Structures are given as C-alpha cells and as structure tokens.
C-alpha cells in the first residue's frame, strides 16, 4: 500500500478500509465477512447477497445461505437492515423444503420479534403468500404477536391483522382468533416448545378481549360448540356456577388454577363460592368478575349484612369510612397537572356491587393492626433491597395456601404473604414483577399488592403508575399499592382494570 493510501486509511472509518467483500469475492470470504461485526452494515449486506448468489450458482451452497439468513433473523441485536435483507433473501427460496423450513423459523420468531420494521416485513411476506394453504400454519404465531399491545398503530392497522385476513379470506377475524383459542395445534402451534400451544391459547383469549370486549361473539361461538374441548367445559362451568367468564389469558390461567386438584382447598372454595353466587340478585351479579369472588364468598359466610345490602348502601358505608381520611393524590401530567382521579366520588358510577364489597373487605384488613405491622415489615425489607419492588397477596386467613411460611403476616381474619421476585425477575427498584408462584397460589386471594417504598418520603409516587394499571388490565386482579409518604406512614391505593383508583387513606406504623 502506498503512503497516500496508508494516510487515507488512518483518517477514514476503520471499517471502510477493512478487508471486506467486493464484487466477485469468493463465497468463503463473503461468509466470513458476513459474520464480521466490525464491518459496516452495507458491507455485510453485500456479503450476504454474495453468499446467496453463490447458492444460485451452486445449489449445494443453498443450505449455507439459508443458515446464514436464519442466524441473522434470530439475532435481534443484528443491524435491522441486514436482518430485513436476510428475510427477503430467505423468502426467495421457493422450493417446497425451503418454504417449509422458512415457515418453521417464522412460526417460532414471530411471537417474540421486537423490531417493528422486521415484524412488518415478516407479516407482509406471509400476506403475499396468503393464497397458499401451507402458510396458514402461521396463524397461531400471528395471533400471539397480534396479542402483544403496542402504542401504535391501532389494532385495525396492525400488520398481523392484514396477514391473518389474507390467510383466512372471508372468515371474520374473531372466528380466526377463536379457533386458535380452542384448537391451537390445528392452527400451527408447534409441538415444541412444550408451552407454545398454551401460550397461543392465552394470547388468543387476550386478543379476543380487545376484538370482542363485551364478550358477545365469544359467548355465541362457545354456545355453538360441541364443548368437547376441556377449556370450553371449564368456561361453561365457570359461567354456570360462578357467574363469571375470564376476560384475559391471565384470567384463563387463574380459572384453570382454581379448577386444579393440586390445591386441596380449591374444591371446597368452589362449592362455597358457587353457593354464594347462586343467592345473588341480578343487581348484585352485574359486572361480576373473578376478582370479586372471594369477597362474595367471605361476605356470604361472615358479613351477611353486606351480602344482603344494595350497592348504594355499601357505597354509603364505604364513603363514611373514607370521610376524614387524608388522601395522597398525585398530580396528573396527562391532565394538565390537575389532581389524579382517586376519590370515591370520581368512580362511584363505575363501581359494581362486587367492587364495593371487595373494597370494604380490603379496608377491614387494613384496619387489622397485625396486618399493618407486617406490611411495614415488608416495606422495610423492600427499602433495604434496591434491586426490585416487593409485593404479595392479601388472603382471608383460612383460604391461604399451605403450609404457611414463617414470614407470613397473620391477623385476626386476614393474612398477607410476600412473594419476593427471584433474581432473574428483578428489573430495577421501581418495578415489581410477580412470580409464577404468586399467580399460581393467589387464586383464592382478595388482592395483589406491592410497595412504593424506595424512601420514607415517596409521596410523588403515591398510587399506581402506568405499569401498575397495565398489570391490573392484563391480570384482572384487585390491586393495592402502599406508598411511603412520611416516616411511619404509608398511603394505600386500590385499583383495578380500566384505570379505576380509590385512595383508601393512610396506614400508620404502631409505636
């Protein structure tokens, strides 16, 4: 290399002077350059094109080209334009074996693809092949991807929707998604990994919750089924005996846990709860959800005056309790700095009988000194651990999972059980991640709770944040958040699906 060329390499970008694929490069050199992350993206794209050109010249090299593209599609951290080029080239292989292998790859990649341009390209590739019956095998994977919420675009403009419509012309979308729910394996859910079919079923139910929010289409389709599928039997039994139908995939798992024989308390709980629900008037049944059932069961057994009262009477009781308590209201940046809507009067028209019953039950628990003592103990542990937020489940004492752990807080009628996130689930000090164990064991719980206890004076974060409200929407639980606002004082906020928040006032550490 001459002196002038050497000087130019010193001042140019290193990758520009690095050895890279050029026109007519040998296939082995192109394959090596493709894997070289020090090269610029355009150089690696050129190398990938040369690997595929070599495969066109020599079919024996096709498997090398395919594996190179597949490897890039799997690597979410690879440059996006390089990954898009890898997909485009992979789709040019129209051999039956190649197409089958590509479908297998995309079926597994679609549900977790995080790059939006890549997701759009995958869906458009499927849409373009919608007339081929074999590509219907991607239906379950498309539904899993579509079930993921994104800020934009809105559901009607999602690329997954366009692909599903192309795969199933003339079939209403709700029916397509419902078929994935009932028969995931028949709609392309692969045998491996083992949980793919169940995740497809939950995703389909989540998506139906958005496409059919009132449940009318689901109810009609279930009614028309022969009901030989176990999950439909479960839904029919839940509607018949408990008066509720799960809305989201998480609630579907909740129902499944309640019907499981692994916990010996479930059968007795179901019997007591169904007997209580049978006594409810049509007014009391309005808006009944899974999150209300433990309050209904408990009230029928131990609070007969509540159980027999009207919604308005219960609202009066709750209002008299909250009157005079100090709320801690956040300012709402989304409403021009106005106070957030956390007072009973803000939501009373949106609260069902079951909601108010649950609120009274929770309020009773928070007036139990032993429960309060343990909540402060858990908050202290949370503050000392800066890797995560802590949380747990509020139970009526006799409905808690057994055996009881030594750190469980026991009151007169209630208990609080902490479920500390495992190391792999710890995101940061302002995020609570509920463990699988917490979900599996909280079927008979009254409410899920967590803490905002990073400091004694954390009032800026009093109440649920966006992630907390998303949690309530996704899982359908009655939720509580306890925020440290002063030394020895926490503010309690109740919230549930749809952004409903009720400030329950302060709880104080005993001297």
Polypeptide structure, described:
The protein has 511 residues and is α+β, with helices and mostly antiparallel strands. Helix content is 51%, strand content 9%. Among the domains are: 10-179; 322-508, no CATH class. It contains 25 helices and 9 strands. The strands form 2 sheets. Strands 4-5-3-6-7-8-9 form a 7-stranded mixed sheet. A two-stranded antiparallel sheet has the order 1-2. The longest helix is centred in the first third of the chain and has 17 residues, at 41-57. 41% of the residues are buried. Mean pLDDT is 90; it is low at 1-19.
Which short descriptors sum up this protein?
511 residues; alpha+beta; seven-stranded mixed beta sheet; two-stranded antiparallel sheet; 25 helices; disordered N terminus
List the helices and strands and how they pair.
Layout: H1 3-11, H2 14-17, H3 27-34, H4 41-57, H5 62-74, H6 80-90, H7 96-109, H8 116-128, H9 139-147, H10 159-167, H11 173-182, H12 196-211, H13 216-224, H14 230-242, H15 249-258, H16 266-278, H17 282-285, H18 293-302, H19 304-308, H20 311-322, E1 331-332, E2 338-339, H21 344-347, H22 353-366, H23 369-384, E3 391-396, E4 409-410, E5 414-418, H24 436-441, E6 447-452, H25 466-475, E7 479-486, E8 489-496, E9 500-508
Parallel strand pairs: 6-7
Antiparallel strand pairs: 1-2, 3-5, 3-6, 4-5, 7-8, 8-9
Helix pairs in contact: 3-4, 4-5, 4-6, 5-6, 5-7, 6-8, 8-10, 9-10, 9-12, 11-12, 12-15, 16-18, 18-22, 20-22
């Amino acid at each position: 290399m001459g002196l002038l060329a050497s000087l130019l390499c010193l001042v140019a970008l290193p990758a520009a002077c690095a050895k890279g694929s050029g026109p007519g490069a040998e296939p082995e050199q192109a394959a090596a350059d493709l894997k070289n992350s020090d090269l610029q993206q355009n150089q690696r794209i050129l190398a990938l094109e040369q690997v595929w050109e070599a495969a066109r010249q020599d079919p024996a090299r096709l498997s090398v080209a395919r594996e190179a593209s597949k490897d890039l599609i799997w690597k979410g951290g690879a440059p996006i334009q390089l990954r898009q080029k890898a997909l485009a080239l992979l789709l040019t292989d129209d051999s039956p074996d190649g197409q089958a292998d590509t479908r297998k790859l995309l079926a597994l990649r679609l549900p977790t693809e995080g790059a939006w341009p890549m997701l759009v390209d995958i869906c458009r590739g499927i849409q373009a092949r919608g007339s081929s019956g074999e590509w219907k095998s991607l239906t379950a994977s498309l539904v899993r991807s579509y079930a993921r919420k994104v800020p934009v675009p809105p559901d009607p403009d999602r690329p997954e929707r366009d692909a599903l419509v192309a795969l199933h012309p003339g079939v209403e979308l709700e029916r397509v998604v419902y078929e994935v729910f009932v028969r995931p394996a028949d709609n392309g859910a692969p045998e491996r990994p083992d949980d793919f079919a169940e995740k497809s079923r939950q995703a389909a139910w989540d998506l139906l919750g958005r496409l059919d929010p009132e449940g009318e289409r689901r109810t009609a389709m279930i009614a028309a089924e022969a009901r030989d599928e176990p999950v439909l039997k479960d839904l029919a039994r839940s509607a018949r005996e408990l008066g509720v139908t799960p809305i989201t995939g998480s609630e579907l798992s909740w129902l499944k846990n309640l019907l499981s024989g692994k916990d010996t308390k479930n059968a007795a709980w179901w019997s007591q709860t169904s007997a209580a629900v049978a006594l409810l008037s049509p007014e009391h049944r309005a808006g009944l959800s899974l999150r209300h059932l433990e309050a209904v069961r408990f009230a029928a057994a131990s609070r007969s005056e509540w159980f027999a009262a009207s919604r308005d009477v219960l609202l009066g009781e709750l209002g008299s309790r909250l009157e005079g308590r100090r709320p801690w209201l956040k300012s709402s940046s989304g409403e021009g700095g106005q106070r957030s809507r956390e007072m009973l009067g803000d939501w009373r028209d949106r609260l069902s009988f079951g909601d108010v019953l649950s609120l009274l039950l929770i309020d009773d628990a928070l007036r139990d000194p032993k429960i309060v003592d343990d909540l402060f103990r858990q908050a202290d542990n949370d503050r000392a651990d800066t890797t995560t937020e802590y949380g747990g489940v509020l139970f009526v004492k006799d409905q808690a999972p057994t055996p009881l752990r030594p750190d469980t807080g026991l009151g007169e009628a209630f208990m609080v059980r902490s479920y500390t996130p495992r190391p792999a689930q710890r995101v940061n000090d302002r995020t609570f991640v509920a463990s699988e164990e917490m979900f599996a064991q909280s079927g008979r719980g009254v409410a899920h709770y967590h803490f905002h206890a990073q400091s004694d004076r954390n009032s800026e974060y009093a109440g649920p944040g966006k992630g907390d409200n998303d949690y309530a929407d996704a899982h359908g639980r009655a939720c509580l958040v306890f925020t440290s606002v002063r030394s020895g004082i926490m503010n309690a906020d109740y919230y549930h699906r749809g952004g409903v928040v009720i400030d329950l006032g302060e709880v104080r550490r005993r001297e």
